[in-house]
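Sequence in, structure out. Go.
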Amino acid sequence: MADKTIIQDRPRAGGFPEIPYKRNTPVRGPGSLALIGIVTGTIAFGYYRLIQGNYRKSRLNIEKKEARLAIFPLLQAEEDRKSVRQEYQQAVAEAQIMSEVPNWKVAERVYNTPRFVEPVTITSEGGLVWSA
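Output:
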């Protein structure tokens, strides 16, 4: 058995071809600097719009307050007319209800003070109005 020669596999004459083991992925999308620039630009634009919106909102609030101050005397006069009308209706109803009570003074002041006390009107859910 010693006289048998061992034949070993050998590479071919030009050698074996190279085995492709590297990743061959194409470059996809923008680079990191471009992404950082895009994000920075987007954030800057967002803050710009936020500041502009806050400025516009504050100007609208100022305009709303000025409008309310301008129409306040009209609203106050309307509320005063309403309260005078309501007091008169209450006095008429009180005179009718208490007509049989002797020495009853209609629309007598409830408070023991010479100062004007603004009437308080409470409206319930059922639409009933109570005023003091």
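Check: Strands lie at 121-123, 129-131. The two ends are 130 Å apart (CA to CA).
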